[in-house]
Each structure stands twice: as structure tokens, then as C-alpha cells.
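Task: sequence design from structure.
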């Protein structure tokens, strides 16, 4: 992610346009106007040049070059980012989808001085995806007594399947 420009100014302008009574209230910027205000062509060029110097081809850029995607071997990223990647396995995901459970991440990385001011972050380095919550299914639960008019009388609060431990683990 390329370091964007004018973010403090953009925040101020957004607050003005979001404040009832302000003459600019609800006069929103277009995607193009925000892009012109925040894009950093010099930063994007510096990052693209750095990638090219290391024989890495850019495979995609966002509309205003805020984001650049490049693919290379892990060994090459290790050398460029002065780091070591490790294989991590997310065991909260379904067991049959090993492809989606294993990821390569580093514990830290560093950037060359001439590139660091132009990059906000390098994705898929130290970031990990969210952990998925286990899903619980109680197959033995039977709802033979349907709830009728008087809810308080017919519902049993102390059902044996719902325990404090179950609720703590589920939530």
C-alpha cells in the first residue's frame, strides 16, 4: 500500500461535509476527486522502480496506484524485505481445506531507506487473517415441547445442553 497524501486535509474536509449547518454539508467528493487529492504518483513510481530493479513484475495496480500487487518467490521477498518467512497453519478453518489454512508470514520486515517513506505497509507479510469461530451443532437436542402462549411457564432456563462453559466457548 502506497503512502497516501493529504489525509489530514481529507479528514477535515470530510468532517465539514458531515456536519449539519456547515455550508458544505453533504457536498461529497467523487472517487476521482479523492484520488487526485490522495494519490502519490512519486511514491508509486519509487516502489515500482524498486520492484523492477529486483526483477519483479507488477501484476496489478489500483485506479490511483494506491495499491500495487507483485508476485515473486518467497526467497526473493526475504532478501528484499530483510526477513524470514515461516509457514503458519490456521487450525480454526475446516480440516478439508488445507490450501486455505496454510500461509507464509514473517514476524517483522524492513524496507530500504529509499522506499520506506513511500510505503504504508506491505500486505501478506506480518498480517494474519481473522480466526474463524468454531461452529457448534447439538445433534441430540429435541424440541418436543413447543412454546405456546405463556412463554415464561413453558421455557426451561436450565436446559442441560446450555451450560456456562458452552456459552463462554461459543461467545
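Answer:
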Amino acid at each position: 500500500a502506497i503512502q497516501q497524501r493529504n489525509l489530514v486535509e481529507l479528514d477535515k474536509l470530510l468532517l465539514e461535509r458531515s456536519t449539519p449547518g456547515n455550508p458544505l454539508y453533504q457536498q461529497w467528493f467523487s472517487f476521482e476527486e479523492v484520488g487526485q487529492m490522495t494519490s502519490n504518483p512519486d511514491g508509486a513510481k519509487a516502489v515500482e522502480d524498486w520492484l523492477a530493479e529486483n526483477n519483479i513484475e507488477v501484476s496489478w495496480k489500483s485506479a490511483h496506484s494506491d495499491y500495487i500487487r507483485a508476485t515473486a518467490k518467497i526467497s526473493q521477498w526475504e532478501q528484499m524485505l530483510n526477513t524470514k518467512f515461516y509457514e503458519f497453519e490456521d487450525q480454526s478453518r475446516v480440516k478439508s481445506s488445507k490450501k486455505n489454512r496454510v500461509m507464509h508470514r514473517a514476524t517483522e520486515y524492513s524496507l530500504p531507506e529509499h522506499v520506506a517513506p513511500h510505503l504504508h505497509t506491505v500486505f501478506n507479510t506480518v498480517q494474519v487473517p481473522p480466526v474463524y469461530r468454531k461452529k457448534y451443532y447439538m445433534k441430540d437436542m429435541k424440541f418436543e415441547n413447543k412454546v405456546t402462549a405463556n412463554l415464561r411457564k413453558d421455557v426451561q432456563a436450565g436446559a442441560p445442553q446450555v451450560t456456562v462453559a458452552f456459552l463462554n466457548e461459543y461467545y
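The helical segments are 7-18, 31-38, 41-53, 74-81, 98-101, 151-154, 164-170.
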